[in-house]
Write a structure and sequence with these properties.
59 residues; alpha+beta; two-stranded antiparallel ribbon; 5 strands
């Protein structure tokens, strides 16, 4: 059981690391399921992101 739990933890860590790496490499596109908030109010959902110009655009 310990080996199984260790495998689950390692898998979650590797999955999170791969996601973070992919976001840095392929960081231009839409953030599906994300919301942009300002002063506690939702401005838009599913914004587009351009990491080169460091911009988040709401359509």
């Amino acid at each position: 059981m310990r080996k199984f739990m260790a495998g689950v933890i390692v898998g979650l860590i590797l999955g999170g690391s791969a996601t973070a790496f992919a976001a840095g490499v392929f960081g231009t596109g839409y953030l599906t399921g994300w919301s942009v908030m300002k002063d506690g109010e939702e401005v838009c959902t599913d914004p587009s992101v351009d990491t080169v110009s460091k911009e988040i655009e709401c359509d």
